[in-house]
Amino acid sequence: TIPVSNAIGELLLELVQEAEVPPVIAAVPLASAEASTLHEWGTAARIVRVVRPPRSLARDSQRPYLLTLHGLARVRLPEAQNAREKIDGLAERIVEYPNADDDPSAEVAATFKAAAIKLLDRLARDAPNESKRDFYVKLSNMVDEVTTQRAPWLADILISSLNIEYADKLDFLSAVQSDDRLKRATAVFVKQTSISEVSKKIAQSIDESLSKQQKEFFLRQQLSAIQRELRNLDRSVPAASRSGTPDAAERKGSNASSSELDDEDHAEHEEMQDIRVKIEAMAKDSEERKMAVREWRRLRRTPATGIEHGVIRNYLEWLTAVPWPASARTTQTSTSFEALRDRNFLSKARAQLDADHYGLEKIKKRLIEYLAVVRLKELQAEKESHLASLEVEKHEAQAEKQAKQDAEAKTSVDTEAKDDSKALVRVPAPVPKLLTRGKSVKGPILLFVGPPGTGKTSLGQSIARALDRPFQRISLGGVRDEGEIRGHRRTYVASGPGNIVQALRKAGRSDPVILLDEVDKISHGNFHGDPAAALLEVLDPEQNHSFHDHYLNVPVDLSQVLFICTSNTLETIAAPLLDRCEVIYLSGYTYDEKMHIARRFLLPKQLQANGLTEDHLSIGDSTLMHIATHYTREAGVRSLERAIGAVVRYKAVEWAEYCDSIGVDPNILLSDVSVRQAPDSPLRRAYKNVVEEQELEIILGIPRWDEDECEREERRGLVYGLVVTGTGEGGVLPVETIMVPGSGKLKLTGSLGDVIKESGELALSWVKRHAYDLYITKTHAQDPLKNPDPMDVHLHLPSGAVRKDGPSAGIAMTCAFVSLLTGACVPSHIAMTGEVTLRGRVGAVGGIKEKVLGAHRAQITKVILPWANRKDVEHDVPKDVRVNLQIVFVRTIEETLEAAFGKGVIGWRSDVLVESRL
Ligand SMILES: Nc1ncnc2c1ncn2[C@@H]1O[C@H](COP(=O)(O)OP(=O)(O)OP(=O)(O)O)[C@@H](O)[C@H]1O
User: Fold this and answer.
1) What atom in ligand 1 is closest to the CA of residue 360?
2) Rounded to two decimals, what is the model's pTM?
3) Are residues 492 and 608 in the same domain?
4) Annotated catalytic residue within 567, 808, 819, 828
């Protein structure tokens, strides 16, 4: 059955209706699919049926007639080339009937049958479905059973019904003789068989290479399809049947609106893409990129539901989140170098430090020097790397030029008959390196040492602000495990990177300022490794460009990070760590400085934090001073800030109650309230925006330091020494002595170390040696502790739980023994520090600034210090403290006794004042 155009269809229909027997026509194919000329051979066929298109579509001229024909014999068109126009008019006389009644030879028929069966078997094997296979099998059986005479007829049938090239079919149609037809059919079948064999082979090999990936792909597709189905199933369960379950409401909510929780496939895909983009942004050939690529591949291979998948994914997230220099450079150069290139950088930095901190002049000066050095080095490094990149560009241009020249030379060498002298051996010039890594661009590591609350941490923040870099703080207090700094290996459950890498990630840039807080509180070697040793690697500029974090397991470049350490004391810091740092001492503030800090920084900060303004609350100088002296006793300002915060909060409550009572919004200013005040009401309260000194007891409670003041008394055997506590704060410590019945021994208590014990014994020995000169005994030979009655001396330093050591209490203990044995008292406004020798000399001691400031805070008015410490007082003690304090410098114990007890109070037999100079 073939479609024919409407015109031909109408004609044929007429013909059929007019004819008595079914008419015979010639069906002639086109010479090729695209050609407009006819083929020379066609088929004579009887018309079986002509079908008109349905009436509803009749007007549609595109709709063809369907013509069913019964083929009878081959026909030939001698004038096929120009038969086209005649055909359109349906010519009557055009064909010849060649005679094709000869018998084929048995041999040719057998070959034909073999070829046909082979092809049909192959087609049956490769058939995509059952019915096709049956079709080929039936044909094959027909071929097998056909007689030699009928073989050409079967060849005609096979060629017409198989999927064979058009040109081959036309060629076959042109054959008339039986043998010729069989031979041509055999050739076509052999060709078809080999085509199908080759294409099967190709398909198989492609299939093998794809099957692994496809298998994974198909499985994943199936998995997600199953998950989707399960979700749909879950949604279709009636809400009532789930209402008893705890998460019913939640699920109901998610059904109602298409929540982002449903979109997990999409989110998952986006996250993976994000990781991918970050990996691609990493520097080529860098360790981190290699590692990331390796892990990425592993991730793709592991099933998404496995534990391993989560571990690798977590690792990749960390690895890609660290700001690696190459990926970060583009963003950070623009901002951090911008700040450094600014001509006013130093003056701006100075202004920043001044805006954040009061006083600390020497420290600020040192910090400005430090910042200047950092700036110079960074700019220098940037210039060098710029030059290096120019060098690289130059080198690349040269290499390109050289390659071009070489190519030209080669062609000329080829044409000039292989002249050896022209063959140039070029040695490539070494490629200059880009200075991107391993280049430390910072100054020394700063270590701020001082008592709590003296602004160490906030100075670090100011430095970061001045450099326009992110600030991160890592608290090392109580860090016992090396893993906290270096991370834990990935084999540990729930492992992660150390706090250095975490800080880098949070900073988001490879050049932040990282403050290592409380380095003195880090613990040293134990069975968890040595965190202090790990810190050494972090801080060593020679090593930290390839810091090793156990979790990431690739070197991390810390050379761009500015590290600043803080500590309360130097005593517990390991020597190698101390060696890497430049120590800057912050020794505490005088009351005057505290007043300034409170007024300019702490009060405004607390007002803002508690939602008030200066209009709502003002605290007078004397009130602030009362808070500082009676409620705090510290080197820093942290307790002061807390106390001010408590006062501000108290007033904030008062203000809110007041506003509620008069019915106004608490946001308005106090000055506005007076205008809008509501008429008198019984609920109305009063509000006073000034805090007086006497109100403090109601707000802050009973002063903490009043009792201590009272306890400082003038007493036999009691002397006040000056100390520095473990946190670096200076203060006053009483040295108490009493006589108890005994046998002339010395008893020392109060958690004393060896050195302080020895200096106690030394002081007593000196007093015993000079007991006669001091009018304690009547002869040189008498022991003051055995005469008239045998007694023991007990020396105690209060705060027994706090460990004390050092030689600096020497003169205080000596004075205490003298007071105990003579009965004379040292006034309670005097405090002293100094080491004694057996000869009665007074030696220099440390911590003078802290001690003097501590004495000043404790309202001591006279301090006795060793002569050798005059320079410390001159350099370190603020002028306003020196003005308010009488400082006496002493060289010997005799001078100390005179300064402590008063001139002439302690008698001295003058005949012994001659000391041997031998
Ligand atoms: N000179 C100052 N000027 C202004 N504010 C200051 C000054 N010194 C300290 N402060 C303020 O005191 C508070 C405590 O300071 P910070 O936290 O820096 O103390 P720290 O020395 O780091 O203490 P710690 O040793 O306990 O860590 C901060 O709010 C800080 O702003």
Assistant:
1) 1
2) 0.59
3) no
4) 808
